[in-house]
TrEMBL record:
InterPro entries: WASHC3. GO terms for cellular component: WASH complex. It holds the Pfam family CCDC53. Residues 96-108 have a biased composition (Pro residues). It comes from Timema tahoe. Residues 115-131 have a biased composition (Polar residues). Belongs to the CCDC53 family. Residues 160-169, 187-197 have a biased composition (Acidic residues). This is WASH complex subunit 3. Residues 89-131, 159-197 are annotated as: Disordered. GO terms for biological process: actin filament polymerization; exocytosis.
Length: 197
């Protein structure tokens, strides 16, 4: 017997000669096991239910935020024909983001022997990037409350540089490409005269 009065069972012990555990003691062990197990299961169940309630509340908030975002996007004119790529398409074929080309420097040099008055050969004043037709709808989306990261992701999906949104007062590029089609801010005759000597 050990200090608790339980028989020490080993390979050399004859189990037929060991006295059985007292019935009251056996019932006490079983009761203790059942109460501790039930207590653990109740605590675990309560913890899981609390976490599930929190997750459900967060999902409801997210659903409400998405409904508000969809309503805001639907209120913007001109976004009905915009195609949105699914996340699978974005991960399979990430668009290559190329920064817009830098604007050409204005021509300000005057030949030393020129007797004619100087004509305005400089390019016309640059429009702001926020007024550029290619980027203006993204600035409108930010202005009506669409999250900045969502607008930047949409620009990246369409192959545009999302960092443009950080500086709305930057000059618009004079020659940008949108889906392979060249878009210019100037009229053709103005662009020809700006490069002539």
């Amino acid at each position: 017997m050990d200090g608790n009065g339980l028989p020490i069972i080993g390979p050399s012990v004859d189990k037929t000669k060991i006295e059985p555990i007292h019935q009251k003691r056996l019932i006490a062990f079983i009761n203790h096991f059942l109460t501790t197990t039930v207590s653990f299961l109740n605590t675990f169940s309560h913890s899981v239910e609390t976490r599930l309630e929190k997750c459900e509340g967060q999902l409801q908030k997210m659903d409400a935020a998405l409904c508000i975002l969809e309503a805001k996007l639907n209120s913007i004119a001109g976004l009905e024909d915009v195609l949105v790529a699914t996340p699978e398409e974005v991960t399979e074929n990430p668009p290559e983001v190329t920064p817009p080309p830098p604007p050409p420097p204005p021509v300000t040099d005057v030949p030393s022997g020129a007797s004619e008055p100087q004509t305005n050969n400089a390019t016309p004043a640059q429009t702001k990037i926020s007024q550029d037709p290619q980027y203006s709808r993204f600035f409108r989306m930010v202005a009506v409350g669409v999250p900045l990261q969502a607008v930047k992701q949409k620009m990246q999906v369409e192959g545009l540089d999302p960092e443009i949104l950080d500086d709305p007062d930057a000059p618009a590029p004079t020659n940008t490409s949108l889906g392979g089609v060249s878009v210019t801010d100037e009229k053709p005759e103005d662009s020809d005269s700006s490069f002539s000597d």
